[in-house]
């Protein structure tokens, strides 16, 4: 699976399996910094780590399909819109900060943002 949101999957695995980055790193035979890089989207896991993450996802009863992303979404994650124009730096900075939060916190923030948008500001 070429296009998976490894950051979201890593974050959810840590939360569901009640692990820290160091413990996950040990299982994947990488450094804690590598796990941090996956969470923030700086890097993707290597072949062995991907295998371990998929196995852990099964253990945690997470559905791999939930983490699939399209090539367009991958382009957006790199800061480009469909027209190849860059996304503003403040939006990218916010997205970066949001991406490292646990899923529940991200959902709360998105709910709050939806509420604020519906109110008109």
Can you give me a brief rundown of this structure?
This protein is mostly helical and 121 residues long.
CATH T-level fold name: 434 Repressor (Amino-terminal Domain)
Radius of gyration: 15 Å
Distance between the termini: 39 Å
Indicate the CATH architecture. Orthogonal Bundle
Helix content: 55-70%
**SSE topology string:** HHHHHHH
Relative strand content: under 5%
Mean pLDDT: 83
Shape: globular
Number of DSSP helical runs: 7
Question: Which CATH class?
Answer: Mainly Alpha
Instruction: Extract low-pLDDT stretches.
Output: none
Structural class: mainly alpha
What does it look like?
The chain is mainly α. The chain has a single domain, classed as 434 Repressor (Amino-terminal Domain) (Orthogonal Bundle). The chain is built from 7 helices and no strands. Helix 1 crosses helix 3 and helix 2 packs across helix 3. It is globular, with a radius of gyration of 15 Å. It starts with 5 loop residues before the first helix and ends with a helix. The model has no long low-confidence stretch (mean pLDDT 83).
Q: Would you spell out the secondary-structure blueprint of this structure?
A:
Elements: H1 6-16, H2 21-28, H3 32-40, H4 47-59, H5 71-77, H6 89-99, H7 103-119
Helix pairs in contact: 1-3, 2-3
What labels describe this entry?
121 residues, mainly alpha, 7 helices, 63% helix, globular
């Amino acid at each position: 699976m070429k296009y998976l949101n490894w950051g979201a999957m890593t974050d959810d695995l840590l939360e569901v399996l009640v692990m820290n980055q160091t413990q996950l790193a040990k299982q994947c035979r990488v450094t804690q910094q590598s796990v941090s890089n996956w969470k923030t989207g700086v890097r993707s896991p290597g072949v062995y780590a991907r295998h371990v993450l998929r196995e852990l996802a099964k253990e945690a009863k997470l559905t791999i399909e939930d983490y699939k992303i399209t090539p367009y979404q991958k382009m957006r994650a790199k800061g480009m819109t469909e027209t190849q124009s860059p996304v503003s730096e403040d939006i990218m900075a916010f997205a970066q900060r949001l991406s490292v939060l646990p899923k529940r916190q991200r959902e709360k923030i998105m709910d709050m943002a939806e509420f604020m948008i519906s109110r008109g500001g």
